[in-house]
Specification:
Strand content: 5-15%
Oligomer: single chain
Helix content: 40-55%
Mean pLDDT: 84
Number of helices: 17
Shape: elongated
Strand order of the largest sheet: 8-9-5-3-2-1-10
Distance between the termini: 44 Å
Low-confidence stretches: none
Structural class: alpha/beta
Order of helices and strands: HHEEEEHHEEEEHHEHHHEHHHHHHHH
Number of strands: 10
């Protein structure tokens, strides 16, 4: 069966994990981090799902997926999780459930944790008791198969025989993966915000701090809604599953584009420096009055969204192919003054210079 058909014919073993706020938040930010990595790929249809079949699920396509990855996302206050704990808490069993139900697909199951994973079976009892004791740990910030990890243990066969007792016969340890995230419980929000800021800076768009935080808040809120349990939708319809539980790389890009397009520099110093350095234009009023006026402009800009869109649409239609950067301000301002319909609007009259400079700023940064 194909991935899409399994989704429509098989209900997940669980829809949500334990109701622990911090753990939920960690999963959301882990999913956000995966989405951020997907933005660098050319596949805008790659999709992340929250709390459907597993804590986080990756699909390579939102319509006809051919590859799926399941992520069990577990946190530890001790920054340590043992293989015996993984077995006793049924983490391995849950990973095996997903693999067995998607066994004919290109599938991987990954246990992601904020701590070191220890293969210390020294005090284990019963089926987990080991004859030839070895003590080694996995602590890498990348996905590595359990088969590869235990091959370096010095006691591969015995450990393998123990683990295989807790997975379905049709499953292979080659499809079970471990990874340590680079998120810590106490600062994962800050780490992700830093990664998002770094990504945005590399896109060539200058986005101010307020806009970056708005993008961050919007993506986290969107993922939180996808994670929320109890949604009423047709779980036999793949498209409805994606709509209610998933978010694509394209969705994330649209969030960034939408907020970037509507944002303007928060600081008057930023816009004033840009005008002076790039356009050779200086605002006429003093340095006390102008910041106050710019603050009023920012508020009016938000409340005058329709007018801003109309003005920017008009200005974007002006041919600038034979205009130097230093000539842009005069060109756009004169055009705006010459448009009686637009200039009759109070917002345009009150803030003409700011409107023109902000328009050019956003135009040059690719945010229009």
């Amino acid at each position: 069966m194909e991935i899409k058909e399994i989704f429509e014919s098989q209900l997940p073993r669980e829809f949500a994990g334990d109701n622990v706020f911090r753990r939920y938040r960690f999963q959301i930010f882990f999913a956000a981090d995966l989405l951020l990595k997907l933005l660098t790929s050319k596949n805008e249809n790659s999709t992340i799902l929250l709390d459907y079949f597993d804590d986080v699920v990756y699909l390579d396509d939102c319509s006809y997926p051919t590859k799926i990855k399941f992520y069990q996302v577990k946190t530890s206050n001790k920054l340590l999780i043992t293989m015996t704990e993984i077995i006793h808490k049924d983490f391995l069993k849950k990973m095996a459930w997903n693999l067995s139900h998607f066994k004919d697909c290109d599938v991987e199951s990954i246990l992601a944790t904020n701590g070191t994973i220890s293969f210390n079976f020294k005090n284990a009892k019963g089926d987990l008791k080991i004859k030839n004791f070895v003590d080694f740990s996995f602590n890498e910030n990348k996905q590595v198969s359990i088969s590869t990890i235990i091959s370096k243990s010095g006691n591969e066969e015995e450990i393998k025989s123990i683990l295989e007792k807790y997975i379905d016969p049709g499953c292979s340890l080659d499809d079970f993966y471990l990874m340590r995230t680079d998120f810590a419980l106490e600062n994962f929000e800050t780490v992700f915000l830093g990664k998002l800021t770094n990504y945005l800076s590399k896109t060539g768009k200058v986005v101010d701090v307020i806009a970056i935080k708005a993008i961050n808040n919007c993506i986290i809120e969107t993922l939180s809604q996808k994670q929320a349990p109890g949604k009423d939708f047709d779980k036999s319809n793949f498209n409805e599953i994606i709509e209610n539980k998933g978010i694509t790389a394209k969705d994330f890009k649209n969030i960034i584009s939408s907020i970037s397009a509507s944002s303007i520099p928060n600081s008057f110093v930023t816009i004033s420096t840009f005008a002076s350095a790039q356009l050779k234009f200086a605002f006429s009023e003093d340095l006390i009055t102008q910041p106050q006026k710019y603050s009023a402009f920012k508020n009016a800009y938000i409340s005058s969204e329709a007018i801003v869109e109309e003005v920017f649409s008009f200005l974007k239609g002006i041919d600038i192919s034979k205009t130097t950067t230093e000539e842009l301000f005069a060109l756009f301002k004169n055009a705006l003054l010459g448009n009686s319909e637009l200039y009759s609007k109070q917002f345009v009259k009150d803030y003409t210079d700011f409107i023109v400079v902000v328009f050019i700023y956003k135009l040059m940064e690719g945010n229009l």
